[in-house]
Amino acid sequence: MVVRMGWREDLRSEGFLDLGEFIIELIYVNCPCEPIPPVLAIYDKREDEWYRVDETPTVNNYSEACDWAIEVIERMREGEGVRIVGLDGPAPLKMVMRLRKSLQRLTD
Description:
By secondary structure, the chain is an alpha+beta fold.
C-alpha cells in the first residue's frame, strides 16, 4: 500500500512543490558563521520568470524554515496579502492570482 504524503510533508522532505504552472522552492543555507534567512522562491513556468516572497524571517534551522514556508503558503492560499517580488518589482496581479488558484488545488 502506497500512502501519499500531503503537500506540507512534500515541502519538508523535498524542499520544493511542483504545482504544474509553478514551482515553489524553499532555499535554506545552514551557515555556521552567520545566519542567512531562508527564501521562498517561485518559478512561473508559463512566463519563465522567477519571483520570491518578500519577507525576511528569523529561523534557527531547516525545520523552522519549513514552518515559515508552510505558513506563508497557507496565507497565500487564503488570499492574504503576501508580498511577492521579481527582478522588476512587485509581481503582476495576474501571476499572483494564477499562483493562488494553483495553491488552492493543493490537497491536505
